[in-house]
Automatic annotation (TrEMBL):
Subcellular location: Membrane
Primary location: membrane
Keyword Transferase among record annotations: no
Low complexity bias spans: 785-794
One GO CC annotation: membrane
Keywords: Membrane, Transmembrane, Transmembrane helix
Membrane topology classification: Multi-pass membrane protein
Name this protein carries in UniProt: Pecanex-like protein
InterPro entries per record: Pecanex, Pecanex_C
Family membership: Belongs to the pecanex family.
């Protein structure tokens, strides 16, 4: 898309220009998309001016001195209360007349209004259009009462006598009076008639009707200041504040229209967060509930400090509570996870700090020895300055850049892709990081505690400066040691620079309040610099980036240059309010966004738009969190402040990291994963991210002066460090020349049979391990023989049919017992639908039951009146019936001993061969289920393919796996198993039946056929239905085919297998370390989450017409991480919220989502919380101990 893509499409422009006047006026809809009768507009004008008319009555009576100010205000309030009751009664009446029995739904602010047909000036549809009414009865009462109170207090607030007294001019008072009533009318209309959609929108939906309260409560705050000025006497500061607020009161509609004033929910959360961080020394919290709980506990501690009667008690209590509140008490079990050592460490720190503070305050406080206390505090001051410089230097050398990301760090290792070499070269930096960790986490807190314990300001008991200032000071020492060290160094530097000179205004504040002000000013200064950098980036790139240069770019640059003071004022105001700097449509048109919490979004952390690719981020999040923990502890990622954003990049993965919370020895983060299916915009920005990281990490280590500068300093991303993370490396190969090679396709058939034989034998071993059979032979008459021995001996004494019966029965019992653990071969959708189903029986089984009186398998009683169908073929598998064949095709079938049981038909199909007479008594352990031998295939087809069966490989595999059945198996047992022809014929029959059922009896003829079989989409063959009904065998055959294709791939790349032992080891490695399947399968996702070392998939690129192989390898790789301009992120998110929630600009090709390689606009939009953003993965808040 070009740079001149419309900011809003035509439909949205029309919608916006209908909605914006409604927002400015507080709710009246004077611009509709259709023709409406004049009375619709007249009614709205009357309702809009009603508060002014009713307030004017009170004002007039007051001016005529017929009523006092208070009584005039009460009269106006009562009149407005009656008018509000009338409006709500009309709304209720209209709802009943329209017979709207359904509950009013939550209004969708993204939807346009519907056309209404008006019939009368006070008709139900007219009333419903003008005053929709409230959804909750409680809100009807609350809003009605509030409307009366607001009108009464507002009348009192803007009385002409009061305004004349404030400004000393009747003309100014008249102007203020008129404009003030416009503000009051907008608030009253929004409260009682129809609520306007506010520009400042925090929640996507106003479920509890909080929006109507926003404007009235802001007005009540202004009125409260005026009332305080009225009743507190002549206070010059308060009177000046009242004068200023009366002027600001006039522009409240403009501020509401520009979205500078927060909604109530955002304002409450923002105020709580600011009070907790700057007033009480805490940290922003990862959830609203945690924020509320921590604020309540901190306030209780501050109040308790105010009433403590002794200075020593204040020091000990503030120090102890500051340490405890700086810990994440909800994760206290994690602190002690290493046993008693973790608990003893924190208890030792607490007791040590309390002992130090108590002793220093008791023996060296200014109340005891003033000179000694001053000398001691000066010594501690120099120690603090030294610690700050050393910690800052050690932190700077940890990252890829120094001095604010301007110059490359010559000590940082570069140009190394090997993780082991990178770790070796980073040992020096790790040692420096360990020293910094000790200085920052152990030495600095104790030094700062000593400085505070020796301070004379602690003597001012029962003062706000002590209860607030020192409680915050002792808290921030532990909550954020690095920031506290900076604040104390600034205070110390001012004292040392002043010397003996007294600074009255500064010294009278006390050390605690001084530290509070320094912390607040330093935060606002850093915000100002970040916002200024972001504003300059938007301004400059709007012209320098050709793809961002719109036709209006030159005009906007000239306007910003000519209005430079105004631009700086906007930046300063946004920094003072800690509000985002909002670039409208991401153009150089800057507004002050409404203040909101650092998290920027109202919902809980961890919301995402999951897709199949989310598993890759879920897998790497744990290892990445461990790497972040080490990097945070060393300082590799710079100063850790809640609200900081980091970007990680590895191959096609982009990870977004946000710091939510920070405390002593811990950090809470949120990890998001962005989409892997890269769009054009995503690709452009990802390529620039790669270039920025290459400039930091891929350059040679010896750099010249001209190469030591960050050429991408203006970018929103500043590289910090490369972190070793255990992650999947993704390799994709085009299989041209491999999958389409005839030699390889011919080899595929042989590999398939070998893999299938290996899987069949291994499946037998797995069953035996899950349900072990005692294969020890018992020859004594009184001993108990094993089941396998009995089966082995039965081959001599019982007829073949009886053998078949016992095998079927035992196999059935065994498979019923093990089906839930080892196989799904006997499961079907019809099982247990109407109770247990009788097992299917072959003809031999039925006849043998009749002879032996076997009652193992019984059929249920017949229903009354039903026709008895208890015939020979009752409840019998269809595949057991002999297929109809032309005459002569029954020749050549295996011989059956007719003398054993003359009732059994003399011939059977190839799929119902009688149970082989195993020559080895242990062969039954490797027997296969009877259902696997019932393939409806002609015998001569199996005979023709018999040479394909790998007999040598069968004997080799059988010998190797025989040891897995019983550890003490002798060589004689293995030899007898290998020489058992019946066992070999059984496995050959099953393997060749699977080969025919997959349509590979000749050879795999084409790559498309190979891909279809690999994907499980097997073309129809004669035995496919039989194979698919035996689910376990089908899965084994499919796995064997996939293994054989992987063998083909490996041999084409690495060379052929040199021995059977190498092939056996390769198949074992596939089974143990590989998942070979399709990306879309659930097994693929489970294997990724279980961290299977390797995964392989075959794919087909329809656009290119090629087949691809994809290999995922789990290994430790370097993930490059950089720091993002946090204010740039907040500003773009603020614009996203305004653009989607208010302007409803959800066009996927809108300008504000187009690629911007400097601001990383597209990636930033993706990383926003749903429903505005669409990260495919978002973790819950992750607690990272980084002590």
């Amino acid at each position: 898309m070009g740079p001149d893509v419309p900011l809003l499409n035509e439909y949205k422009q029309e919608f916006f220009w209908k909605r914006f006047p409604q927002t400015v006026l507080g709710g009246p809809r004077f611009k509709l998309g259709y023709c409406a009768p004049p009375y619709v507009y007249v009614n709205q004008v009357v309702l809009f001016l009603t508060p002014w008319l009713l307030g004017g009555i009170g004002t007039l009576l007051c001016q005529l001195q017929l009523l006092e100010e208070l009584h005039a205000a009460m009269l106006s309030g009562l009149l407005m209360l009656g008018a509000a009751v009338g409006v709500q009664a009309l709304a209720l009446y209209a709802a009943r007349r329209n017979a709207m029995v359904e509950r009013l739904g939550v209004p969708n602010i993204l939807a346009d209004e519907e056309e209404v047909e008006f019939t009368h000036c006070v008709g139900p549809e007219t009333v419903r259009f003008i005053a929709p009414g409230k959804r909750f009865g409680l809100n009807v009462l609350l809003h009605t009462v509030l409307a009366g109170a607001l009108c009464g207090l507002g009348t009192w607030y803007v009385l002409l006598g009061r305004l004349t007294a404030l400004y000393g001019s009747v003309g100014v008072a008249l102007v203020v009076f008129v404009l003030s009533w416009v503000t009051l009318c907008t608030a009253e209309y929004s409260l009682i008639v129809n609520t306007a959609t506010e520009t400042a929108t925090f929640q996507a939906q106003d479920t509890y009707e909080i929006t109507p309260l926003t404007r009235p409560l802001y007005i009540l705050a202004f009125i409260a200041v005026d009332l305080a000025d009225r009743f507190t006497g002549p206070v010059p500061e308060l009177q000046l504040t009242s004068q200023v607020l009366h002027v600001v009161f006039l522009v409240l509609p403009l501020l509401w229209a520009l979205g500078m004033l927060s909604p109530l929910d955002a304002l409450l959360l923002w105020g709580m967060e600011q009070a907790l961080v700057f007033g009480l020394g805490g940290s922003p919290m990862s959830s609203n509930l945690r924020l509320l709980g921590m604020l309540a506990m901190s306030v209780c501690v501050t109040v308790c400090t105010f009433f403590i009667p002794s200075t020593l008690g204040v020091v000990l209590f503030s120090m102890a509570m500051g340490f405890l509140l700086s810990l994440d008490l909800s994760q206290f079990g994690t602190y002690c996870g290493g046993g008693s050592r973790g608990l003893l460490l924190y208890l030792g720190l607490l007791l040590g700090a309390m002992t130090e503070a108590g002793l220093l305050h008791h023996f060296l406080s200014p109340s005891q020895t003033q000179n000694l206390a001053r000398v001691s505090q000066d010594a501690v001051s120099y120690l603090l300055i030294t610690l700050f410089i050393v910690c800052w230097a050690l932190r700077e050398i940890q990252g890829a850049y120094v001095f604010g990301g301007v110059f490359l760090n010559p000590l940082y290792p570069r140009g190394m892709a090997n993780v082991r070499v990178f770790k070796q070269r980073s040992r020096g930096l790790h040692m420096a990081g360990a020293i910094r960790r000790v200085l920052l986490n152990l030495v600095s807190p104790f030094a700062m505690v000593a400085f505070l314990a020796l301070d004379g300001s602690v003597q001012q008991l029962h003062t706000a400066s002590l209860s607030v200032g020192f409680t915050r000071a002792f808290r921030v020492v532990w909550q954020s040691s690095e920031d506290a060290l900076l604040q104390m160094v600034v205070v110390v530097s001012v004292r040392l620079a002043a010397g003996d000179t007294r600074l009255p205004g500064w010294d009278s504040l006390g050390t605690g309040v001084q530290l509070l002000l320094v912390g607040l000013l330093s935060d606002r200064l850093l915000q100002f610099l970040s916002k200024l950098k972001f504003a300059l980036a938007v301004l400059v790139t709007s012209w320098t980036e050709k793809k961002q240069r719109r036709q209006s770019a030159g005009t906007l640059l000239v306007l910003n240059a000519s209005l430079c003071p105004l631009l700086l004022s906007v930046v300063v105001l946004s920094a003072m309010l800690s509000a985002p700097l909002l670039p409208l449509f991401t153009l150089p048109i800057f507004l002050v966004g409404f203040p909101r919490p650092q998290r920027s979004w109202p919902g809980p952390v961890g919301t995402a738009c999951p897709c199949p690719d989310s598993i890759y981020y879920q897998q790497m999040s744990g290892s990445l969190a461990c790497a972040l923990r080490s990097a945070f502890a060393r300082g590799s990622l710079g100063p850790l402040t809640p609200g900081s954003h980091f970007l990680g990049r590895f191959q096609d993965r982009v990870v977004w990291i946000m710091i939510l919370e920070r405390g002593y020895g811990y950090c809470t983060v949120n990890i998001k994963g962005l989409e892997l299916q890269e769009t054009s915009c995503h690709t452009v920005e990802a390529r620039r991210v790669d270039e920025v990281f290459e400039g930091a990490f891929e350059r040679p280590e010896r750099l010249g002066l001209n190469q030591g500068i960050n050429l991408h300093w203006g970018n929103a991303l500043t590289p910090c460090a490369a972190l070793p993370v255990r992650v999947y490396s993704d390799a994709r190969n085009v299989l041209s020349g491999i999958i389409d090679s005839h030699d390889n396709l011919r080899k595929l058939q042989d590999d398939f049979l070998k893999a299938l034989v290996w899987l069949l034998l291994r499946n037998c071993v797995q069953r035996l391990k899950a349900f072990p059979w005692d294969t020890e032979e018992g020859t004594g008459g009184g001993g108990t023989k094993s089941q396998s021995s009995q089966l082995g001996q039965s081959t001599v004494t019982q007829p073949a049919e009886a053998i078949m019966v016992e095998s079927n029965i035992s196999s059935l019992k065994f498979r019923r017992a093990s089906s839930s653990l080892t196989s799904f071969g006997d499961w079907s959708d019809e099982d247990d639908l109407f109770g247990p189903q009788p097992a299917r029986r072959t003809v031999a089984l039925v006849s043998t039951e009749a002879q032996l009186g076997d009652t193992v398998l019984q059929t249920g009683p017949s229903l009354p009146g039903s026709v008895e169908m208890d015939s020979l073929f009752e409840n019998m598998a269809l595949s057991a019936l002999q297929p109809l064949q032309p005459l002569g095709l029954g020749l050549g079938l295996p011989a059956v001993d007719k003398g054993r049981n003359p009732e059994v038909p003399p011939t059977k199909s190839s799929g119902t061969l009688a149970h082989e007479n195993f020559s080895c008594p242990h062969s039954e352990l490797f027997s296969l289920p009877p259902g696997w031998r019932t393939a409806p295939l002609l015998p001569f087809r199996l005979q023709q393919l018999r040479p394909l069966f790998p007999e040598e490989w069968f004997r080799f595999t059988l010998g190797r796996l025989a040891l897995a059945v019983q550890d003490e198996a002798s060589e004689d047992v293995a030899k007898s198993l290998k020489e058992d022809g019946g066992l070999k014929d059984l496995h050959a029959q099953v393997a060749l039946s699977c080969l025919i059922s997959l349509g590979a009896e000749s050879a795999f003829t084409s790559p498309s056929y190979v891909y279809r079989v690999y994907s499980g989409d097997v073309p129809w063959t004669e035995g496919l239905k039989w194979l698919s009904e035996n689910k376990e065998l089908y899965q084994l055959a499919l796995k064997a085919f996939r293994y054989s294709f992987k063998l083909l791939f490996d041999q084409a790349s690495l060379g052929p297998m040199e021995s059977l032992d190498e092939l056996f080891s390769t198949l074992e490695e596939y089974e143990r370390d590989w998942y070979i399947g399709l990306v879309a399968e659930k097994g693929w996702q489970d294997s990724v989450l279980q961290e299977k070392p390797f995964l392989f998939s075959l794919g087909h690129d329809l656009t290119m017409g090629t087949y691809t192989g994809r290999v995922l390898s789990l290994q430790e790789q370097l993930v490059q991480v950089g720091h993002l301009n946090g204010e740039g992120v907040r500003g773009q998110w603020a614009n996203l919220s305004w653009e989607l929630l208010y302007a409803t600009n959800d066009d996927e090709e809108r300008y504000s989502i187009q690629a911007h390689p400097i601001m990383l606009r597209n990636l930033t939009v993706q990383a926003a919380d749903p429903p505005l953003g669409y990260p495919i993965y978002s973790s819950v808040p992750l607690h990272l101990p980084c002590f």
